Amino acid sequence: MNNATILAVAGVLMSSAPCLAQTPVALVEDVRGNSAGVEFMDYLAAGKVIKLKSQDSVMLGYLASCWSETITGGTVIVGTEQSDVQGGKVNRLKVPCNAGKIALTAKQANQSAGTSFRAPEDDPVVLYGVSPVIAAAGGAAVLIARIDQPGEHHIVTLPKKKGTRTSFADLAAAGKRLVPGGIYRVSIGARQMVFKIDPNAKPGRVPIISRLLRFQTAG
Fold first, then answer.
1. CATH classification of 101-214, choosing from 3.40.1000, 2.30.30, 2.60.40, 1.20.120?
2. What is the pTM of this model?
3. What is the C-alpha to C-alpha distance for residues 134 and 16, in angstroms, rounded to an integer?
């Protein structure tokens, strides 16, 4: 390989690195203390470094590997499937989640407002908690309607948060439960997804990556 080719390849890698670095691989599900420098429901890219005081902790959910980690103290380096923890303690648990579909959901929902996404009803996203967490633009009105049986529907408005376009609603906090085994459609304007509640889904605030419906904001 000549010098010109080497320089060209290096240029491509350098130009693509920022894009790759921005791909979210983990979600912050809980933060205890003030040293972490991240907030609840932040999406983190691989390579992110979190420094925790000895009494502080952070809970991360990995979108592709379905690892749920609670880390106390030390330095945390976010990986693609799990964290590298130095000088701290980590409790790592494999939880059920849509390993391949959480990121897919973001792509599907990031279409223009006039475009409708319709997931195949024989292959819906599966949630493993009866109370979904919906992440989307603040102020969005969300309709959840059961489609395998008529009559059940829920309306949720995502609160607007100062300083960010994104927001979330946790149906567990609102005391709302869907039916295990039920098939639902969630709609924000013309954008929609079909999902199913796993027959063995658990109530309450189970790990967010087990029950996340993510509508990525455009722009």
1. 2.60.40
2. 0.77
3. 30
